[in-house]
Amino acid sequence: MKAYILTIGDEILIGQVTDTNATYMADALNDEGYEILEHLSVADTRQGIRDGLDRALAVADVVLMTGGLGPTKDDITKKVLAEYVGTELTFHAPSWERLQRIFRSFGREATESHRVQCYLPATATVLTNERGTAPGMWLEFQGKIIISMPGVPYEMRYLVRQEVIPRLLARNTRADRQRSLTIRTAGAGESVIAEAIADFEDALPAHMSLAYLPDLGTVRLRLTIRGTDEAAMHTELQAQQVKFESIIGHLVYGYGKEDLALAIQRRMQERQLTLVTAESCTGGAIASMITAHPGSSGHFKGSVVAYANSVKNQQLGVPAGMIEKYGAVSKFVVEAMASGARQQLNADYAVATSGIAGPDGGTEEKPVGTIWLAVAGPHGVTSKLLRAGKDRKRNITYTVHQALNLLHQELRQAEA
Amino acid sequence: MKAYILTIGDEILIGQVTDTNATYMADALNDEGYEILEHLSVADTRQGIRDGLDRALAVADVVLMTGGLGPTKDDITKKVLAEYVGTELTFHAPSWERLQRIFRSFGREATESHRVQCYLPATATVLTNERGTAPGMWLEFQGKIIISMPGVPYEMRYLVRQEVIPRLLARNTRADRQRSLTIRTAGAGESVIAEAIADFEDALPAHMSLAYLPDLGTVRLRLTIRGTDEAAMHTELQAQQVKFESIIGHLVYGYGKEDLALAIQRRMQERQLTLVTAESCTGGAIASMITAHPGSSGHFKGSVVAYANSVKNQQLGVPAGMIEKYGAVSKFVVEAMASGARQQLNADYAVATSGIAGPDGGTEEKPVGTIWLAVAGPHGVTSKLLRAGKDRKRNITYTVHQALNLLHQELRQAEA
Question: What fold does the segment set B2-170 form as a domain?
Answer without folding.
Answer: Molybdenum Cofactor Biosythetic Enzyme; Chain A (3.40.980)
